[in-house]
Amino acid sequence: MTRLQAVLLAVVVVVVGLVAMPPYLDIRKVNGAILDLEIIADAALRYEFSTERSCVTPRALLADDGVAGWQGPYLDSDADLVTPWGGPYVFDLDRHLVGIGAGDATVPAKYRLGGEAELAMPIGEGASWWPARAAGS
To answer: Do you find a cis peptide bond into 73, omega within 30 degrees of 0?
Structure first.
Protein backbone atom coordinates (compact mmCIF):
# COMPACT_ATOMS: atom_id res chain seq x y z
CA MET A 1 0.00 0.00 0.00
CA THR A 2 1.38 3.37 -0.97
CA ARG A 3 1.40 6.40 1.28
CA LEU A 4 -1.33 8.00 -0.80
CA GLN A 5 -3.57 4.96 -0.38
CA ALA A 6 -2.89 4.92 3.37
CA VAL A 7 -3.78 8.61 3.65
CA LEU A 8 -6.97 8.11 1.62
CA LEU A 9 -7.94 5.15 3.79
CA ALA A 10 -7.35 7.21 6.95
CA VAL A 11 -9.47 10.06 5.55
CA VAL A 12 -12.31 7.66 4.70
CA VAL A 13 -12.19 6.12 8.19
CA VAL A 14 -12.27 9.57 9.82
CA VAL A 15 -15.18 10.75 7.64
CA VAL A 16 -17.20 7.60 8.35
CA GLY A 17 -16.47 8.02 12.05
CA LEU A 18 -17.59 11.65 12.04
CA VAL A 19 -20.80 10.78 10.20
CA ALA A 20 -21.60 7.86 12.52
CA MET A 21 -20.70 9.53 15.83
CA PRO A 22 -23.61 12.00 16.38
CA PRO A 23 -26.37 9.37 16.18
CA TYR A 24 -24.35 7.12 18.49
CA LEU A 25 -23.97 9.91 21.04
CA ASP A 26 -27.71 10.65 20.84
CA ILE A 27 -28.53 6.98 21.44
CA ARG A 28 -26.19 6.90 24.45
CA LYS A 29 -27.96 9.92 25.96
CA VAL A 30 -31.41 8.47 25.30
CA ASN A 31 -30.44 5.14 26.86
CA GLY A 32 -28.93 6.97 29.84
CA ALA A 33 -32.13 8.98 30.29
CA ILE A 34 -34.28 5.83 30.14
CA LEU A 35 -32.17 4.22 32.86
CA ASP A 36 -32.34 7.40 34.98
CA LEU A 37 -36.11 7.56 34.57
CA GLU A 38 -36.53 3.94 35.66
CA ILE A 39 -34.45 4.63 38.78
CA ILE A 40 -36.41 7.80 39.62
CA ALA A 41 -39.77 6.08 39.03
CA ASP A 42 -38.70 3.21 41.31
CA ALA A 43 -37.58 5.70 43.97
CA ALA A 44 -40.93 7.53 43.72
CA LEU A 45 -42.76 4.23 44.19
CA ARG A 46 -40.67 3.40 47.28
CA TYR A 47 -41.40 6.91 48.59
CA GLU A 48 -45.12 6.30 48.08
CA PHE A 49 -45.01 2.92 49.84
CA SER A 50 -43.15 4.27 52.87
CA THR A 51 -45.05 7.55 53.28
CA GLU A 52 -48.45 6.46 51.93
CA ARG A 53 -48.44 9.66 49.84
CA SER A 54 -47.54 10.42 46.26
CA CYS A 55 -44.19 12.08 45.72
CA VAL A 56 -44.85 15.50 44.23
CA THR A 57 -41.31 16.64 43.43
CA PRO A 58 -38.10 14.82 42.55
CA ARG A 59 -36.26 16.73 45.32
CA ALA A 60 -38.41 14.92 47.92
CA LEU A 61 -36.60 11.71 46.95
CA LEU A 62 -33.34 13.15 48.31
CA ALA A 63 -34.30 15.16 51.37
CA ASP A 64 -36.90 14.67 54.09
CA ASP A 65 -39.69 17.14 53.40
CA GLY A 66 -41.40 16.45 56.74
CA VAL A 67 -43.72 13.71 55.49
CA ALA A 68 -44.40 11.00 58.08
CA GLY A 69 -42.84 7.65 57.22
CA TRP A 70 -40.05 9.07 55.04
CA GLN A 71 -37.25 6.48 54.91
CA GLY A 72 -34.94 8.04 52.34
CA PRO A 73 -32.96 9.23 50.73
CA TYR A 74 -34.40 7.21 47.87
CA LEU A 75 -31.71 8.36 45.42
CA ASP A 76 -27.96 8.63 45.90
CA SER A 77 -27.35 12.27 44.95
CA ASP A 78 -28.50 15.38 43.11
CA ALA A 79 -26.77 13.98 40.02
CA ASP A 80 -29.54 11.34 39.80
CA LEU A 81 -31.99 14.14 38.97
CA VAL A 82 -30.00 15.57 36.04
CA THR A 83 -30.58 14.44 32.46
CA PRO A 84 -27.68 13.35 30.24
CA TRP A 85 -28.13 16.71 28.46
CA GLY A 86 -27.65 18.61 31.73
CA GLY A 87 -31.21 19.67 32.59
CA PRO A 88 -33.48 18.51 35.42
CA TYR A 89 -36.00 15.67 35.42
CA VAL A 90 -39.53 16.76 36.38
CA PHE A 91 -42.79 15.15 37.47
CA ASP A 92 -45.95 15.55 35.40
CA LEU A 93 -48.44 14.93 38.21
CA ASP A 94 -51.48 15.20 35.93
CA ARG A 95 -50.28 12.23 33.87
CA HIS A 96 -48.35 10.49 36.69
CA LEU A 97 -45.06 10.60 34.79
CA VAL A 98 -41.45 11.52 35.44
CA GLY A 99 -39.68 12.89 32.39
CA ILE A 100 -37.85 15.79 30.84
CA GLY A 101 -39.57 19.14 31.18
CA ALA A 102 -41.27 20.60 28.10
CA GLY A 103 -39.30 23.82 28.53
CA ASP A 104 -35.84 22.21 28.84
CA ALA A 105 -33.97 23.75 25.90
CA THR A 106 -30.93 21.50 26.48
CA VAL A 107 -32.86 18.45 25.20
CA PRO A 108 -34.24 17.90 21.69
CA ALA A 109 -37.96 18.79 21.73
CA LYS A 110 -39.02 15.31 20.64
CA TYR A 111 -37.71 13.81 23.93
CA ARG A 112 -39.42 16.30 26.25
CA LEU A 113 -42.78 15.67 27.94
CA GLY A 114 -45.42 16.04 25.26
CA GLY A 115 -42.92 15.47 22.44
CA GLU A 116 -43.40 12.86 19.72
CA ALA A 117 -40.82 10.55 21.35
CA GLU A 118 -41.10 11.76 24.94
CA LEU A 119 -38.84 10.07 27.43
CA ALA A 120 -41.01 9.36 30.47
CA MET A 121 -41.82 6.66 33.01
CA PRO A 122 -44.96 6.20 35.12
CA ILE A 123 -44.73 7.12 38.79
CA GLY A 124 -46.91 6.01 41.64
CA GLU A 125 -48.65 2.79 42.58
CA GLY A 126 -51.35 2.43 39.95
CA ALA A 127 -49.67 4.51 37.28
CA SER A 128 -49.53 2.97 33.85
CA TRP A 129 -47.52 4.29 30.93
CA TRP A 130 -50.09 3.41 28.26
CA PRO A 131 -53.17 5.24 29.62
CA ALA A 132 -51.03 8.23 30.58
CA ARG A 133 -49.52 8.38 27.11
CA ALA A 134 -52.91 8.02 25.40
CA ALA A 135 -54.48 10.67 27.61
CA GLY A 136 -51.67 13.09 26.85
CA SER A 137 -51.71 12.51 23.09
So the answer is: yes
